[in-house]
Amino acid sequence: MNGRAAAGASEIPGVARLERSPFQGRALRSLVLTGGVWLAALIAGVPLVSVLYLLIVRGGSRLSLEALTALPPAGFEMGGGFGNAIAGTVVMVGIAGLISVPLGVVAAVFLAELSPLSRLSRAARFAAKTLTGLPSVLAGVFAYAVVVLTTGSYSAPAGGLALAVLMIPIVVLTAEEAIRAVPRITRDAAYGMGCTRTQVACKVLLPTALPGILTGVMLAVARAAGETAPLLFTALFSSYWLFDGGHPHLMQPTASLAVLIYNFSGMPFENQIELAWAASLVLVSMVLVINVVSRLIGRPRT
Amino acid sequence: MIELTGGSRAGSVSAPPTRWDYFADRAFRGAARGAAWLIVLLLAFLLYSIGAKAWVGMRTHGVGFLIGSTWDVGRQQFGILPHIWGTLYSSLLALTIGGFFGVVMAIFLTQDFLPPRLAQVFRVIVELLAAIPSVVYGLWGLFVVVPAMRPIADALHAHFGFIPLFGSTLSGPGMAPAALVLAIMILPTVAAVSQDALRLVPYKVKEAAYGLGTTRWEAILKVMLPAASTGIFGALVLGFGRALGETMALAMLIGNSNQISLSLFSPGNTLAALLALNFPEAGAREVQVLMFAALVLLSITLIVNVIGDLIMARSARRAGARA
Lengths: 302, 323
Hints:
The complex is a heterodimer of chains A (302) and B (323). Chain A is mainly alpha-helical. In chain A, 73% of the residues lie in helices and 1% in strands.
C-alpha cells in the first residue's frame, strides 16, 4: 500500500515549484479526467430523467379516475383501467408483509441480541445474505412448486409467498443492524435493573430501533410492490375483482400492477399501451414515495 | 429518553420478574430461535423444492440438456445452451457498461468532487435508479431504447458488418438494448458497493498522497483505486450476480430467440427469461425441465454471489487490519 504510494510519488520529476500551471501535462490530465467524470455522471443521469419524463408525459395523459378504478379492457375495447391490479398488488404485498415482517423482526432479535455469535445465528445470517442475491424469478419458481402445484391453481397467496421470500432477507438484515445500533449502555442499564431478555428486547431494543426497522420494512415493501417475475406464474393475471359480491376470491388468479404493465406492453393496441404507461406511473410513484418516506424515517436524528 | 416499565409506577421497576415474566421470556426466546431456524430452513426448503422437482428432468435429459440448443415442446426436445450463453453474454455486456459507469459514479461521489450535501443528493438519486421496477425499465426500453438504437445499429451493420459484433441488423428487440437497460439496472449496485469500498480507505492515505505532490487524479488512480481494488472487484462480481438473475427487462427486450450469436443486434434468450415466459403455460413434462433450468440459474447466481460476498468480506477484513 505505502509502497505503491511511494512508487507513484517517485515519478514526480522534481519539486522546483509548489504551484502547478493548469496547462502542465499532469495538471491538464487531471483537469480532463475531472471533466470526463462530470460527463459520465451526467450520462448516467439521462436514463432516470428520460424514464421519469416519459412516465409523466405518456402516463400522466392517460391517468384518470376511470383508469384507477375500472377493470382492464379486453382486446379492442376502449377505456378501462387497472383498479383490480392496484387492489391485487396491495393484497399480495400485504400477505407478503404479514409473513415476512413478524418472522424477520423476531429472527433479527435473535441474531442481534439473544445469541449473536452462535452457529445458528451465523447460519441464519448466511441464509439471509444468500436469499438477498436470489434472482426474483426463482422465488416465483419456489412458490410455484410449493403452492401452485399443491393447490392446483394460481392464487394471491402463491404470489404473496413469492414476494415474502424476497422481503424476508431485507427485513432480517436491516432489522438486525438497527437493533445492533442501540447503544450498549442502554441495554446494560436495562439488564442492570433486572429486566428479562424478553423485556429488554420488547421494551428497550425494539422501540429504540423502530425507525431503522421501519426503514427496512418499507424498503422491502417497495421492492416487493415492483416485482413482476415472481408473480407471472404464481398469481398470473385476472381481469376481474379480487373481491366480488362481498366474497374474496383469494384462491384464484390475481391481477397486479407489475404483471399488467408487462402484459399490456406487448399488446398491439394503443389503448393498452397507454394504460401500461399510466400503470407504470402509479407503480413508480408508489415505490418512490415509499422509498423517500422510509429514508426520512430512518434518517439519523441530529 | 427510554421509558422502562411504565416509569410512573416506580415500585414496579425494581420488582423481581413474576412467573408470567419468566414464562414470557422463555416463550419469546423460543420463538426467536424458531424464527432464526425458519430463515435457515427457508433457504434449505427452497433449494430442496427446486432440486427435487428438477431431479426427474435431470434423470431424463442429463447433460444433453446443458449442451442442446433446441427448445421444442412438441418434440420433447429441450436444451438450454443458448439460454446459458445469452445469460452470460448479456450480463457481461451489461457489466462492462454498468460497471464502468458505476465505478466512475462511486469515484465522483466519494472523492470530493461535490460539496457533501450535493453528493448526498446524488447518492439518493443513484439509489432511486435502483428502486424503479424492472418491468418499467422494460417498457421504457421497448418504446425508447429500441427505436433510438435501431438507426445506429443498422448503420453500424451496414459499414462494419464484417465484425462479428455487428453481424446483423436490429429488427426490434435484441441483445444490445437488453444489455444497455441491464447496465442501467446494475449501475446502482456497483456504485453503492464501490462507494463503501472507497470509503473504507482511510483519509490519511489520500492526504499522504497529496502531501507527496500528486494531482487529484494521480491520488485517485494510483492510490485510492489500488487500495480499494478488492472491494471494487467485489462490487463488480455482485453486480454481475444481479445481472444474471434479472428477468423482466430481458424477457421484454432480448427477443426470445434460441440462438447463439456474437452479434450485439441479434435477438437471444436468457435462463431467467425462459422461466418467466414458459412457466405460465407449461405442461407437466415441461415443468420438470424448467425446474432443471431454474436449478442451473440458481447454481450460477449462488456461486457468483458467494464469491462476491467472500471478496467483500476479505476487503473489509483488510481495511480493519489497516485501520
